[in-house]
Amino acid sequence: MAKRTGKASAELIRSIPLFKSISDQSCSDLAAASTLRQFTARARLFNEGVSADKLYIMVRGSAELFSEQDERYCTLAVVPAVRPLALYTILSERSPLSARVLEPSELVVVPVKLVVNLFARDRAFAEAVMRELASECHEIVEDFKSHRLRSTIERIARWMLRGDHKSGSTGRILIPFDKRVLASYLGMAPEHLSRSFSALASAGVEVHGRGVTLKDRDALAQAAGLDVPERFMQPSAPKEKS
């Protein structure tokens, strides 16, 4: 369920990395045409196979991009704030994935026609779009490589190390969504996730509900197939030109 909360202010538009370098006129156009909406957990945003007429930008919460076939289910990406969802669909005839929010979330909704128009006339925005697309592509390729080349234990250990780094290397992370979604995102069945959690106890990992405590990063790095914990970090997204 979605609740419209009003227009997106120019200040909010500017706070979104995708729009931070756009011209004042483009910012004004986006503020006039965009809406700020609140969504309840599990609300569907769009469906696979449908042409996109809106671009969703997560400003609070998270969403998953997924696909379903008969009884099979696959999570391709989990999108956090503050990022657009499936930017590559704006010029596609149909979306290759479905999307839904994972927790109560707030999103800016922009008409796709305006996004395409701004891409053609605002060079700074066009460059920001290319950087975002490059980042999305990089993440998808890295995940695909991980699913094909690494064991379930290695995938989970790397996810934990990455999550710990993002949370300030506190040794404590919170699984921000249902474990079934995490299992799907990491390319395994839920029961394999549970078994892997148990197997990582020897590497100092403790799991209580959605809370995870890491007591030995070096041991966890070894379980992840790394020499040192820092090696888990993926290459950064393309940098903005100064």
Descriptive report:
By secondary structure, this protein is of the alpha+beta class. It folds into 2 domains: 2-147, Jelly Rolls (Sandwich), CATH 2.60.120; 150-232, Winged helix-like DNA-binding domain superfamily/Winged helix DNA-binding domain (Arc Repressor Mutant, subunit A). Helix content is 38%, strand content 26%. It contains 8 helices and 12 strands. The protein has helices at 10-15, 24-33, 112-121, 123-149, 152-166, 179-185, 190-199, 217-223, and strands spanning 2-7, 35-39, 44-46, 54-60, 62-69, 72-80, 83-84, 98-101, 105-111, 172-174, 205-208, 211-214. The strands form 3 sheets. It has a 5-stranded antiparallel beta sheet. It has a 4-stranded antiparallel beta sheet with strand order 3-8-5-6. Strands 10-12-11 form a 3-stranded antiparallel beta sheet, with helices on one face. Helix 5 (152-166) packs antiparallel against helix 8. It is elongated, with a radius of gyration of 19 Å. The N and C termini lie far apart (42 Å). 29% of the residues are buried.
